[in-house]
Amino acid sequence: MDSKILNAMKDHVLELGPEPSSGPYRHFKLTRDEDGIAWLLFDREGASANTLSSEVLEEFSQILSVLESERPSGLVLRSAKRSGFIAGADINEFRGLSDVSIVEQQLGHGHDILNRLENIKLPTVAVIHGFCLGGGLEVVLACNMRIAIEGARFGFPEILLGLHPGFGGTARATHLFNPLEAMTMMLTGKTVEARKAKALGLVDAVTQERHVRNAVKDAIFGRLKRKRLKLTTLMNLGPARKLLASRMRKEAANKAPQENYPAPYALIDLWEKHGGNRADMLAAEKPSFAKLMVTSTAQNLIRVFFLRDEMKKLAGGKSKIRHVHVIGAGAMGGDIASWCAHQGLRVTLADMQPAAIANAMKRAADLFAKIARGRIAQRDTLDRLIPDMTGEGAKQADLIIEAVPEKLQLKQSIYAGLEKVMRPDAILATNTSSIPLEELRASLQRPERLLGIHFFNPVSRLQLVEVISHDQVDQEALATAMKFVGGIDRLPLPVKSSPGFLVNRALMPYLMEALLMLDEKVDKLTIDEAAEKFGMPMGPIELADQVGLDICLAVGDELRAKLGDSIPVAPDWLRDKVAKGELGRKTGRGFYEWKDGRVQKGHAHVHATPEMTDRLVLPMSNVCVACLREGIVDNPDTVDGAMIFGTGYAPFRGGPLNYARERGPENVANALLVLAEKYGERFKPDAGWATFR
């Protein structure tokens, strides 16, 4: 075989040192090479990825005792999992913790183990491939040296769980390399790739698998020298910390208020107060982390982490869809097409207007420039997205997604043409946001092939996709649709056909109530503030501009026709704005002015009241309870997940049902009754509150 091929193949095989024997350990394998170097391979039993559990750490502690006694010439720490080094702590052990002292005690044990690793009397080197995250990164920071395999990625995602690093990572990172860079990693949760990590000083070398043994010898026997960065010491001095901490707090406040997300502020305080002394910061990290762990924010964000995992599992397996044909190159259809192409599918995009396809292709190119890695990847992704003026792609497609405006007759006329040309085994999916499938299927010869695949805007950022069934749908087609959604890295939510399904039915009262507040002469900035202080990523007025006032009006009218007084009447002035073409972000003007896709807005002069917030958010919880009672969805956890991943509902609240549970179902029902007496029947509490727990 060609030597070049052999060398290429070597980079796909992990260099794990000498062949280990079975050994006495469940999660590790320990062996020595001819140079007396100990190779410790982490291979957590029964798991596809390594995580740090209490049991794993205890076994690691036992191995450290052996190494302290036997004193090999050096220690190499590696993962035997192809998936990567260590994905972090075992988050299952974070759930339901409520006692600060117990959390701090557990942390103390972890600190003791990593301190032993750091202080062991022999050279230690971590060899890292794939992802090295959270607690895994804290482990490698306790080693003397770090060697990254090309393509490895490093990060501290704890902030996304309402926490900061807790196994000594805050102190070790800020004293190993530029503390501003280290703090940025911890405050954002973003990862850095191997070459960037080397430039920062986080790792000491970047190599390929076939060179690992030589790189290990260089590190163990002193031939690999790490760079000492003077700037690290200077930036940890008191005056620099004070100045930088002040700036960090301002940036954090622009993203999330402290009362909702305390972790960034706790981390900044920790570094500002103790960053000048590594030992002090290590000690102070434990109580800081423990206090965060028992907050409702952290516990709810941990719950959201598991909700995402549970919703991923709903996909049910690997997708067989290879060719998607999208009809309608507007904002939604074009973005659905580009996302599918980004995920490796062949996509044909049809529209009667060449300008619409041209605009969609331009948006796709802009998206791929941001999210595809490298020019070759951008080119290949764009090649998979094929303009299709004649609609020929419908004949070969596995899945056809219709994404035209919300007009029943228009959709049905398109279906009539499609049924003549689409393959018998192809699936016809609608991206309708509000029209029940029972109405859409009425003109179809084969209604069992129709189902709903409803994306949310922006497609590239919102993870939820509703998969909508009806009583005549082919169950195999439905399962295929669920797998398709999982296959394009989205979270499928099975819902039964009904007006607005789940998310839009819950979201529309939120948007319409905001418009009624405008009718009452409440300032739009105050209305948005009421939602943003609750924790929404943006207020309902800005959201209406984002969605498009024409779409809000169409969906609002559609749902009011089906659901009656539970949906407020759209004001006449909204119809006037739509008629004038003031549609929001897409036209540059709606309730706000928009420039280059960015909203132009100031700050509220009159602050929102708690009643305003209740008027906006409690109807969402009310609708979610109604959808559970009606059987549109069957799991309260996935309802919460849907609202978080489909609308951005305040994640630290854990979802509208979890919020109601924490506030108290009776309290919420009573608050709705008070609002109903004051503002009308649209606030009437649903009958489902009587049994909701």
TrEMBL record:
Domain 3-hydroxyacyl-CoA dehydrogenase NAD binding: 323-496
E.C. number: 1.1.1.35, 4.2.1.17, 5.1.2.3
Pfam families in the cross-refs: 3HCDH, 3HCDH_N, ECH_1
Biological process terms in GO annotation: fatty acid beta-oxidation
Gene Ontology MF terms: 3-hydroxybutyryl-CoA epimerase activity; enoyl-CoA hydratase activity; long-chain (3S)-3-hydroxyacyl-CoA dehydrogenase (NAD+) activity; NAD+ binding
Gene3D superfamilies linked to this entry: 1.10.1040.50, 2-enoyl-CoA Hydratase, Chain A, domain 1, NAD(P)-binding Rossmann-like Domain
Pathway: Lipid metabolism; fatty acid beta-oxidation
Entry's family note: In the central section; belongs to the 3-hydroxyacyl-CoA dehydrogenase family.
Listed name of the protein: Fatty acid oxidation complex subunit alpha
